[in-house]
């Protein structure tokens, strides 16, 4: 009996010893002498009281200054659960108001609606891509002595301009492919071109940090835009404002007043080369793609970032804005490297999967054909609405060129959307045409 009477006391001593041992050697968290729930809650309550007692309520002086936070939310009428004889009377009253037939019809209607919703959810909705004719190489134009890095079509669809590594800007007749004019002035590779739809101006940028405005009536430079700290890789004209946006290797995009040459904004935030920039007349009015693997949407009025898109895993080198749809596409390197976005928030729509190359250039026409050109000479044509590839081919280097000179650096559709002009690493300009249906 004495042994049995000493068992509870012995158990208490063991627990106390175990807790002391745990306090000294807190190495094993799975032992049987863990902290009791009541002790843990008490310890936490004491700690909260000691640390936050003074900060729990505002001082009287500050409490008097506190005003209303905002309009109060309207109070909802409270719904009470009624049981007993009163509830039976209420249910009888509801039954009197609503005849049994109506109740049965409402139940049937709700069940049929639910079944329709479930059936719609279970059906796999597949959007059929729009039919697009095949594209075919129709003309190869030679004349540059370096990689063709930029191309732009004039709004009248009569001629187009190209810039290359030979530092020369050449004007070509779009119908015949004949050389009309050569403009010299840059001292490094010409990386960007844009023709103004409202003025007789051609804008160019190059790796010599220079941005030039050419008067096409006099065929000479009339303005320079100074400010970039390194090579300028892309430029774009605003559709409605007299504003020019340039971007380059100094990790910034710069907004210029076209006429006064004043620098309106420096769009800073990217951490690597800004490879491409696009403008549209509605927010976001400026979109940039950078080697830091991000796409930024900019507020042009404030000169600040609206949204930063971080979905790409590698450097973003190409952007394409749809001419009529409120969306754009971006291209980088690797798998799932072309992505479609919806404006103005930059909502991700889907991936264009299949073009496993470094995408240097992209263009889209009003008929919903997206073109992507790769650094390895691969050419892909996509249905812009569904992301389905309907044609792919390879750029063929011209005789005398290396096999490695098959890359496509720049592209643009003409104003009709039926011809595609590309600038290539074999120093040629290739024109693709849409075949008749």
UniProtKB/TrEMBL annotation:
Region Disordered: start-end pairs: 63-85
Protein location: Nucleus
Primary localisation category: nucleus
UniProt xrefs under SUPFAM superfamilies: WD40 repeat-like (SSF50978)
WD repeat feature ranges: 141-182, 183-224, 225-266, 267-308, 352-392
Gene Ontology cellular-component annotations: catalytic step 2 spliceosome; precatalytic spliceosome; Prp19 complex
Record Pfam families: WD40 (PF00400)
Keyword vocabulary terms for this entry: mRNA processing, mRNA splicing, Nucleus, Repeat, Spliceosome, WD repeat
Keyword Nucleus assigned: yes
GO biological process: mRNA splicing, via spliceosome
Superkingdom field: Eukaryota
Subunit description: Associated with the spliceosome.
PANTHER family the UniProt entry points to: PLEIOTROPIC REGULATOR 1, WD40 REPEAT PROTEINPRL1/PRL2-RELATED
Function: Involved in pre-mRNA splicing and required for cell cycle progression at G2/M.
Family membership noted in the UniProt record: Belongs to the WD repeat PRL1/PRL2 family.
Protein name: Pre-mRNA-splicing factor PRP46
Species whose genome carries this gene: Exidia glandulosa HHB12029
């Amino acid at each position: 009996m004495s042994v049995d009477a000493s068992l509870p006391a012995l158990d208490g001593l063991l627990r106390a010893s175990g807790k002391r041992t745990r306090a000294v050697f807190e190495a094993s968290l799975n032992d049987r002498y863990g902290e009791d729930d009541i002790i843990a809650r008490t310890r936490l309550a004491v700690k909260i009281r000691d640390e936050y007692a003074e900060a729990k309520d505002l001082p009287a002086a500050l409490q008097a200054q506190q005003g209303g936070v905002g309009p109060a939310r309207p109070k909802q009428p409270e719904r009470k659960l009624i049981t007993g004889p009163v509830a039976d009377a209420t249910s009888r009253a509801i039954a009197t108001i609503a005849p049994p037939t109506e109740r049965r019809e409402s139940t049937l209607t709700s069940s049929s609606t639910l079944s329709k919703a479930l059936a719609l959810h279970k059906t796999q909705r597949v959007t059929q891509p729009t039919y697009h004719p095949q594209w075919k190489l129709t003309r190869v134009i030679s004349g540059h002595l370096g990689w063709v890095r930029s191309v732009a079509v004039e709004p009248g669809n009569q001629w187009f301009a190209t810039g290359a590594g030979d530092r020369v800007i050449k004007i070509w007749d779009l119908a015949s492919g004949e050389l009309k004019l050569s403009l010299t002035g840059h001292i490094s590779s010409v990386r960007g071109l844009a023709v103004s739809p409202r003025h007789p101006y051609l804008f160019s940028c190059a790796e010599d940090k220079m941005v030039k405005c050419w008067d096409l009536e006099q065929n000479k430079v009339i303005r320079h835009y100074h400010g970039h700290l390194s090579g300028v890789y892309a430029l774009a004209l605003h559709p409605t404002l007299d504003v020019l946006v340039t971007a380059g290797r100094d990790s910034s995009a710069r907004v210029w007043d076209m006429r006064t040459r004043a620098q309106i904004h420096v769009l800073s935030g990217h951490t690597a080369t800004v490879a491409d920039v696009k403008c549209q007349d509605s927010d976001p009015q400026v979109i940039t793609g950078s080697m830091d693997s991000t796409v930024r949407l900019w507020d042009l009025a404030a000169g600040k970032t609206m949204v930063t898109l971080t979905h790409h895993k590698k450097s973003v080198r190409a952007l394409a804005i749809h001419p009529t749809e409120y969306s754009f596409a971006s291209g980088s390197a690797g798998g799932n490297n072309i992505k479609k976005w919806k404006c103005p928030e930059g909502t991700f729509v889907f991936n264009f999967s299949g073009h496993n190359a470094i995408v240097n250039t992209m263009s889209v026409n009003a008929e919903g054909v997206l073109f992507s050109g790769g650094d390895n000479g691969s050419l892909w044509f996509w249905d812009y609405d569904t992301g389905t590839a309907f044609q792919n081919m390879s750029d063929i280097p011209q005789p005398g060129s290396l096999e490695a000179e098959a890359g496509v650096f720049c592209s643009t559709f003409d104003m009709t959307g039926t011809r595609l002009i590309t600038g290539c690493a074999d120093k040629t300009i290739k024109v693709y045409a849409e075949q008749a249906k």
